Amino acid sequence: MLDTGRLAKDERHAYRIFLASLLGALVLLFAGVFLGFTARNADFLRDVMLERAQSLFRQIVMTRQWASEYGGVYVRKGPGVESNPWLDHPDLTAADGSLLTLRNPALITREISEIASVRDDYRFRITSLKPLNPGNEPDGFERKALTAFEDGALEYWETADGSEGRVFRYMGALRAERSCLACHAKQGYVEGDIRGGISVTFPVGRLEGELRKNVALVFGLEILIAGVTLAAVLFFVMRLRRQLDRVRAELEQAATRDALTGLYNRRYVLERFIQEASKCRRAGQPLACALVDADDFKAVNDRFGHAAGDAALRIIAENLKKGVREYDIPGRFGGEEFILLFPGIRAPEARIACDRIRSAIESHPRPEGLSGARLTVSIGISDTDFSAGSGEERDGLDPLLSRADEALYRAKSGGKNRCETCPDKSGGPDRNPGT
Question: What values do phi and psi take at 226, rounded to 5?
Fold first, then answer.
């Protein structure tokens, strides 16, 4: 027989593994969604910042190209307007006598950057690994970018902590143009060479702060949704578990119980006999068995009908359950015949219980459909003594049932509504006289 306790334990273990796996999968799913969302937003913010930096870089390059096409731009020299010390003969006198000074693309770029840093919160500068102006010496970020340009890169960027908080820094490669060679040819540059770059810097602390707020909001919403989802899944899984337990209990009931009487069925009783015999053999204890048969049951069916016959069988079963100990095993053996197993006692003790059951059935109140019916049982009892040692023919189920059946036959022959015990193994007189 299957070990139902072990099966139930294995089932509970499997259920816990399934539930833990399901909840773990859901947690991983929500964590993956959150991490994916966070990474996607971080990438989106980076793309926005990079696009802005590239746009500013292109605007600066176009401004330089415009100035380069005209060989620079002359501006009126007045208070605060200094000549570019890195140009040869930058000043000239206009026809009206006013003094003009040349602004080359590099200087135009620097002066626009100064204005932008005040008005638009970003700044840019031209730099090179070989600057003419010591003021254009590259900083650490710019030096890394310029080194990357020498290896073939055309742009370089990073987010860093600056004196004004978090900033996005971008640098694009700057090629030498013909107009640039007036100053830079002496450094060995030819047209088309990458002679430096333009770096663009603007603050991103506010944008990153907004991103963190959005991430925190999404995290809170996801925790809420995950909690609700996990609770719903747990509820439905537990509900399914209860339904499965109920169905399993019903299946076990159907597999081990007789549908009409609620007693154990024949197959289950025979399986239990093997278990109980093994226990009694190990403990050196006896095992008693009783066969119970309804007297004149065919007459009850013929006179009162099959529904009344079923009611009679239920009365017998009810009294069998009431008349035995908690660990005794009552079952329906087939038709109107029942069986009782009494672990740990001999036939005389079992007969006392059987006589009590027989008397209770005889005096049990009859339902309306059985009014006037005579309902009695005959009982045959046998036992086996495992204290005498196992292996004897007498210890088996078949010999035990055969002797109980022989005693039942004697009860029937002796007038019915009585209990009989099996004769001695030697075939001598009854160990207990019939009632």
Answer: -65, -40
SS3 225: helix
Mean pLDDT confidence for 201-212: 85
The answer to whether the beta carbons of residues 381 and 422 sit under 8 Å apart is: yes
Residue 210 a catalytic site member = no
The C-alpha angle 252, 256, 257, rounded to 5 degrees, equals 105
pLDDT digits 0-9 by tens, 395-407 = 577 888 999 999 9
Spatial separation of the C-alpha atoms in residues 116 and 49, rounded to whole Å: 17
Q: Is beta strand 155-162 parallel, antiparallel or unpaired with respect to 165-175?
A: antiparallel
Instruction: Report how far residue 270's alpha carbon sits from residue 264's, in angstroms, rounded to the nearest whole number.
Output: 10
Query: pLDDT, tens digit, for every residue of 33-64?
Result: 888 888 888 888 889 889 988 888 888 888 87
Q: Which member of 142, 276, 336, 420 is catalytic?
A: 336
- With beta carbons less than 8 A apart as the criterion, state whether 342 and 280 touch: no
pTM for this model (two decimals): 0.50
Q: Are 50 and 170 in contact (CB under 8 A)?
A: yes
Q: Domains (ranges, CATH) in the chain?
A: 266-421 (3.30.70.270)
**Other beta carbons within 10 Å of 40:** 10
